[in-house]
Amino acid sequence: MVIIESIDDVKKTIHQARVDGNSIGFVPTMGSFHSGHLSLIKRSVSECDVTVVSIFVNPLQFNNLLDYNVYPRDVDGDIQQLEKERVDILFIPRADDMYKEQAKTYVEVEGLSDVLEGKFRPGHFKGVSTVVCKLLNIVQPENVYFGWKDAQQLVIIKKMVRDLNMPVNIIGCPTIRERDGLAASSRNIFIGDKRIEALSLYRALKRIEEMVLKEKVRDISVLLTEGGNIIKEYPLVELQYLEIFDAEEFVPAQEVKGSVIALGAIQLPSVRLIDNIAIKVL
């Protein structure tokens, strides 16, 4: 595995790999790898000739400087895991290279960026869209892999790529969960002794899924009330949002039919968590 910091150098290395007839797979990350990241990397390695992974804690997507400063970082540990997975290229750009001092250009997907996470993290998706656009321009992969755990992010990136006619396949991969159902996340290290509270959102989402699939409940308000009541059982948990969206249009569902996705966010004393479950009604 080669490790590259320079944008020009990584472009030259990937260009040569492409000239040699290799397909390029790309997994953009902020590092501090968990099983979810590794599932994306494994898929790229299995489907593409050359896999590029980036590690860049993107300052533009943090609306809270403290959150940026404490975001988990473990580059040495990440490198060891990437070598085990037989990744070909690790790209670790510097922030001052990614964002020049006079940079004035940003990418924002209107509408989709303003709901759910966008309400609670102003500017977050502007930062995500901008950095992903830049990384795709640098790497120019055939395939890029994202997890459905960050469903809104995935929908926004797909929309950006489609609107800008970018020649890349955006591949969404299943959420990876820990043994008790908690969605894998770099932020899980901050949960501490509040594991039961952290699982409240997953419990609420699973209850909504059960009501739809087994009890044939279709009333959105009934489903959300039941899910919200589960989270209310935990005094230390603040429910920030719990919604059911149409999976195709990514707008609030008026009724449960076809494919929908239940999404939520909770705030614990030491960490904020998001999760979602896709539900298909036959």
Instruction: Tally the beta strands.
Output: 9
Q: What is the gyration radius calculated from CA atoms?
A: 19 Å
Q: What is the C-level CATH assignment of the largest domain?
A: Alpha Beta
Uncertain regions spanning at least 5 consecutive residues: none
Structural class estimated from helices and strands = alpha/beta
* Major beta sheet, strand line-up: 1-4-3-2-5-6
Mean pLDDT over the residues: 97
* 3D shape: globular
Distance between the termini: 46 Å
* N-to-C order of helices and strands: EHEHEHHEHHHEHEHHHEEE
Number of domains: 2
CATH architectural category of the largest domain: 3-Layer(aba) Sandwich
Work out the helicity level: 25-40%
**CATH superfamily heading of the largest domain:** HUPs
